[in-house]
Amino acid sequence: MAASRDLLLNSALQVVTHDGFGAMTLDAVAKAAGVSKGGLIHYFPSKDALVSGMLDFYGEQLEREIEQRIAVDPLPTGRRVRAMLHIAFPWLEAGEAAQPAEQSDVIRMFLAMITAAGVNRELLAPLRSRARKMIARMFNDDADAEWQLMTWLAIDGMMLWQFLGLLPPADPLQERLIRRLHAMTKMPPVCGEEA
Amino acid sequence: MAASRDLLLNSALQVVTHDGFGAMTLDAVAKAAGVSKGGLIHYFPSKDALVSGMLDFYGEQLEREIEQRIAVDPLPTGRRVRAMLHIAFPWLEAGEAAQPAEQSDVIRMFLAMITAAGVNRELLAPLRSRARKMIARMFNDDADAEWQLMTWLAIDGMMLWQFLGLLPPADPLQERLIRRLHAMTKMPPVCGEEA
DNA sequence: TGCGGCCGACCGACTGGTCGGTATGATTGA
DNA sequence: TCAATCATACCGACCAGTCGGTCGGCCGCA
User: In sequence order, which residues have a C-beta less than 8 Å from that of residue B187 and are 6 or more positions away?
Assistant: First the structure.
């Protein structure tokens, strides 16, 4: 059943979130899902398979969400990266300041990738073509795709800092940076001030 | 002896580089250093101690190198981030295009941090004050420190992509992005074109 | 009665860490 | 002066526990 598979994938990510990717063992995932180890192995015959599953699942989920947001964004410039930003920081479009920080799909994908790098680097291979396609689409859509790509890099950098705990979650500095990134997606290549 | 300690730290990083941080076991590090496990434990009484050692060692090394470069950079604006960029991509200041990619101190620090996150997240705590200081210094030096910080985030994002293999190492796109980042450090907040 | 989904005890390899020991060289003391 | 003593650097067999993965079997349903 697909529901059981999804439950297991979510449990795996939950373990990574709470205890770090070093603690993501098959036993831990099975226990978090309320399933026996055999049950887990039934759906994912190896740890590699489980991590690949995470990569596919959250990768596709993120891509789907991005496409949805692109479809309703009236401003063509920087739509793709802006979608990413809105998914990562939902409070941005609500117009509010607070970030109650329910885990976004961007962080989920980030965690899945880092976990994969720890388990078996070869699992990351499928990501490469995915990234290449994403970049190609950006060069199709945007006049200054390089600029958008740089904004994307900054978002990923922010994910990294958040993951490492280098940036306090409720820091006003972070909020200012994010708003600025948002402005950057709208007005390349001259930018830097509020929109 | 400090020399043996340094050798062990370098060996640990070598293991991480070649086989991934999931393969960094005490036995592997000892073997890479040509030392027995007991010898390794003599200098680093636990795995946590070893990883903390890496964090300190490469963190200080990177900071020292940054300060050196800042001291000889005539342009005050964005010196700190520009130093980072030059360390990460040494071919930038040579004026050449190729990147023979000898491992930079920036990547070394990146690998140490990711490894620490996998072994024991608490080991990252000392990094927080270090990062806070770095940010404070940037707000002291730069009129638009936020902009510099954003460039820094983008550099870290690029480290991440490189680590995950998402960006082909010899891609001309990467080179263009890096040159643009370099330009960004010099002319905030209006920027985006070549220097 | 047969069968597929799931269970969980079990396995061998490996992990971080311990410990008794050795080699070397400096320090002491009669 | 030269043993006896101590400190340091290092060794590697060993231990208890954990890991990913296997497998024989149970159970509900057809």
Answer: B77, B195
Q: Read off the pLDDT band of A94 (50, 70, 90).
A: confident
Residue B187 and residue B113 in contact, taking contact as beta carbons nearer than 8 Å: no
Q: Which residue has the tokens 């930018």?
A: A191
Do residues B42 and B80 touch, judged by C-beta distance below 8 A?
Answer: no
Q: Give the dihedral sign, CA A125/A126/A127/A131.
A: positive
Give the model's confidence band at A47: pLDDT under 50 very low, under 70 low, under 90 confident, else very high: very high
Residue of chain B with shortest Cα separation from A182 = B150
Mutate to test the interface with B, among A129, A152, A153 (most CBs of B within 10 A): A153
Count of Cβ atoms closer than 10 Å to residue A151 Cβ: 28
Decide: CB of A35 under 7 A of nucleic strand C: yes
Share of chain B residues as helix, strand and coil, in percent rounded to the nearest 5: 75, 0, 25
Residues in chain B, pLDDT under 50: 191-195
Q: Model-level pTM?
A: 0.93
Rounded Cα–Cα distance for residues B160 and A160 (Å): 8
Q: Is the CB of A37 less than 7 A from some atom of nucleic acid strand C?
A: yes
